[in-house]
Amino acid sequence: MDLDLIQVSLLAILQGLTEFLPISSSGHLLLPSLLLGWADQGLSFDVAVHVGSLLAVIGYFRSDIRRLLLAWLLSLHSGKSSADSKLAWLLLIATLPAGITGLLFSDVIELYARSVIIAAVASIIFALLLLWSDRVGKYRKELFDLNWKQALFIGIAQTLALIPGTSRSGITMTAALFCNLNRQAAARFSFLLAIPIIVASGLLKFIEVLNSDAGVGVAGHWQTLMYAAGISALVAFSCIHFFLRLIESIGFLPFVIYRIVLGCVLLAVYFV
User: What long-range pairs does 35-41 form, CB within 8 A, spacing at least 24?
Assistant: First the structure.
């Protein structure tokens, strides 16, 4: 694991920028190797930047998480339901499809994870789908208006994020907009839904690191890995904050245009 500080900084910034914005982190992480010839930084680096993303979303929604968790535990103990406990259950329901699919098809996912063609085409197709959902959505519903069928629909849509170039946040926001959530509610549900998925993904990669040669020499680079996690967390936290503040006014069109351009760039680099 050869960790160059400049590469680490840029890749950590890239991870932080793209993890929660609807623009596909996998599509962007292909660019350094395609354009600059950078080598893959390895599993331990992936774990570090995912830890950074996780810390960012947990830190930003810490009060929501605490409230939802307490309400969920209370509902288990007393059987009494509330708006917060209902939302916690809906997040759990929405997590199941991607969690099960990821476990069952992890080998297939890993095989095509670096496919430039798939990432490029998916980026364009799902950008257009996001635009469609933003245009036809009625923006009437708030977060607590969701029902279990809509949560399951969003969760099933999240399984498509296993396709490189799709964007996990993009596809879950798309599905939420089709369920007539307003943009703010769609984004918040998507960000909260990211927490269990990032935890599961990070744990699987961490186990893989421990069971492979990727774990050898990590101790000698722990400061660099902590630095990468910190940069990723700071950038991701800022992205969540400004995205939620601006999404109602700017809409999704800028992200759609950007993703179409990204897809075209990936295709051009691949074929030229």
Answer: 35/269, 38/7, 38/11, 39/2, 41/1, 41/3, 41/7, 41/8, 41/11
Whole-number Å distance between alpha carbons of 121 and 125: 6
pLDDT of the residue at 145: 92
pLDDT digits (tens, 9 = 90+) for 245-258: 999 889 999 999 99
Within 13 Å and on the Cβ side, how many CA atoms surround 160? Answer: 21
Task: Give residue 154's identity as a one-letter amino acid code.
Answer: I
Q: Look at residue 153 and tell me whether its pLDDT is greater than 90.
A: yes
pLDDT of residue 217: 47
| Contact criterion met (CB below 8 Å) for 4 and 41 | no
Distance CA 99, CA 32 (A): 29
Which residue did the predictor score with more confidence, 77 or 252?
252
- Side-chain half-sphere CA neighbours of 11 within 13 A: 29
Strand partners, 132: none
Query: CA nearest 191: which of 203, 204, 205, 173?
Result: 173
Q: Which residue's structure tokens are 């992890």?
A: 106
Partners of 181 in beta bridges? 141
* Number of DSSP helices (H) and strands (E) in the chain, helices first: 13, 0
pLDDT, tens only, 207-242: 777 776 555 444 457 788 899 999 999 999 999 999
C-alpha to C-alpha distances, 192 to 3, 84, 195, 231, nearest whole angstrom: 31, 13, 6, 21
Cα–Cα distance, 170 to 126 (Å, whole number): 8
What is the rounded distance in angstroms from the CA atom of residue 186 to the CA atom of residue 251?
Answer: 12
Query: Is the pLDDT score of 104 beyond 90?
Result: no
Furthest C-alpha separation in the chain: 63
